[in-house]
Amino acid sequence: MRVILIPGDGIGKEICESVKCINDVLYTPIVFEEYEAGAEYAEKSGKLFDDGLLDAIKDSKLALKGPTATPIGKGFQSINVQLRQYFHTYANVRPIRSLEGIKSRYENVDLVIFRENSEDLYLGVEMMKDENTAQAMKIITRHASNRIIKEAFQYAKKHHRKKVTCIHKANIMKMTDGLFLKEFQEVAQEYPDIVSEDCIVDAFCMKVVMNPKQFDVLVAPNLYGDIISDLCAGLVGGLGFAPSVNYGDEVRIYEAVHGSAPDIAGKDEANPTAILLSYGMLLEDIKEVEKANRLKEVIYELIKEGKEVTKDIGGTLSCSAYTNALIERLKRI
Length: 333
Prior knowledge:
333 residues; alpha/beta; two-stranded antiparallel sheet
């Protein structure tokens, strides 16, 4: 099974090397085909990604991606956004859960965030009205809203989740967010066994840090979904433990949602947990559930014990040494 691997920038090559090593030990049907993309590749080649990348993803329909850097306030559009728009991966799903052994303010957090991925301000429709005024266009459609909201409710039904919460700012954005909220209310009627509620985005930010256990499945437009995903990751120790998948009707792109960490790139200090958990989501989706569970089991086991882990979570191991520790545990199962 051919899967496109995009290491990206910074620590991407190191954490993707970890994935390749784990994949070899698990004896999965996956064969990785590697392509370059990102700011570093653009600097040396003048292109944002390899010429064959888009066709390769279109053909394989599966990709695993490391972090890619994006200039702030100038330069090219985010490669993440470009890939999502090109392949119409309208859903960004980010599970957030507590891990024993990770110091955080909360225990037993278990949230799943459904972020609409195809529109909103992330379309990047901006213009200068005059030299002193910049303007951006926020676009929310009924079709895209309905699609992501149904995905959230279907997930809740399949996984026996009890509640879906819609995040919005419809008190101010009465037409755009108002449309998203109205669509949520209509879809919710099709799932009477699942509790539905809505929450204004700023109020949600307060409530979730006071008591994250009051929430379960969350669904939001693009911008809010991005912000609350990072906020919720902070509740369980940070983005280093936050996997994700972007999917549409055909293509699925799995990725760690953290940045490229250029300050530690090339030092073998990166924590590959997030991309390994994203790889685990990929394994589940290709029906390699037993192998995905084995991988998660050894990751959770090592982190809980707290000895054979990377420096960022209190250990002493390098990225490669942590990977080797995982491999040794996998061999015992």
